[in-house]
Amino acid sequence: MAPKKINLAEKLGAFSDHWNPRIVGTYNGNEVRVAKVSGEFVWHSHTETDELFLVLSGELTMHFRDRTEILKPGEFIVVPRGTEHKPAATGECQMMVMDAEGTSNTGEVKDANLTRATLEKI
Amino acid sequence: MAPKKINLAEKLGAFSDHWNPRIVGTYNGNEVRVAKVSGEFVWHSHTETDELFLVLSGELTMHFRDRTEILKPGEFIVVPRGTEHKPAATGECQMMVMDAEGTSNTGEVKDANLTRATLEKI
């Protein structure tokens, strides 16, 4: 069976909450996710997966312990596994994110308000 | 060391030839590639990797044996390993592509004009 295309804006239009990624596809054992973010996230790292962030709208600030990167639409960054990072955004930022299948959005950190043990597929 | 962001348009501006992807990043054993395409490619499949196509500009026609999908900017498709497909574009289409590291752009097919046994990193 041939696969179907996915429209990122359409998927992003299906929800409005922040820091709650949705799964919109799978690729080589990884999940293609979309997320809306605003404000500050928590410092965390992922021991079992690199993490790719591609900004679609707005601006993403990615803090590292030794530097900060600011991403605009059409820019991506791959955070290597084990690298501490803290995403943040002034205003709303919409992005595509990739992580290994089944991995949490807060990595090794458990946060009652932010950790999504499982993610919704939309 | 913290990673650096990649600007897709900047990378795409560094070359002009068609059907010759460049590697612009790595993620979980996969290559993030950018490509400019125009016209018809060849029917092929990849036995060892899924392939993700995200359209950035123009329009990508993805032929499958049983159906055709037309992708516009902001739309992606994941072609599962082993699935025959033939990309095509009327006019130029720019896209981000992901494949397992070291895999050829023509998969199992060898074509003197199209196959890139190794890809340039830019």
> Using CB atoms under 8 Å apart, which protein chain pair has the greatest interface?
A-B, 41 and 41 residues
First-to-last CA distance of chain A? 20 Å
Provide the number of structural domains of chain A: 1
Return the CATH class of chain A.
Mainly Beta
Overall pLDDT confidence of chain A: 96
Apparent shape of chain A: globular
Low-confidence spans of chain A: none
Estimated structural class of chain A:
mainly beta
Q: Looking at CATH, which topology of chain A would you report? A: Jelly Rolls
Give me the strand/helix succession of chain A: EHEEEEEEEE
Total count of helical runs of at least 4 residues of chain A: 1
What's the helical proportion of residues of chain A? under 10%
- How much of the residues of chain A is beta strand, in percent? over 45%
Per CATH, which architecture of chain A?
Sandwich
- How would a crystallographer describe the biggest sheet of chain A? 8 strands, mixed
List keywords for this structure.
homodimer, 122 residues, mainly beta, Jelly Rolls, 8-stranded mixed β-sheet
Summarize the structure.
Chain A is mainly β and 122 residues long. The first copy, chain A, has a single domain, classed as Jelly Rolls.
Description:
2 copies of one chain form a homodimer. Chain A is mainly beta and 122 residues long. The first copy, chain A, has one domain (8-106): Jelly Rolls (Sandwich), CATH 2.60.120. Chain A is built from 1 helix and 9 strands. In chain A, strands 2, 3, 4, 5, 6, 7, 8 and 9 form an 8-stranded mixed β-sheet that branches. In chain A, a hairpin with a 4-residue loop joins strand 5 and strand 6 (68-71). Chain A is globular and about 45 Å long. The mean pLDDT of chain A is 96.
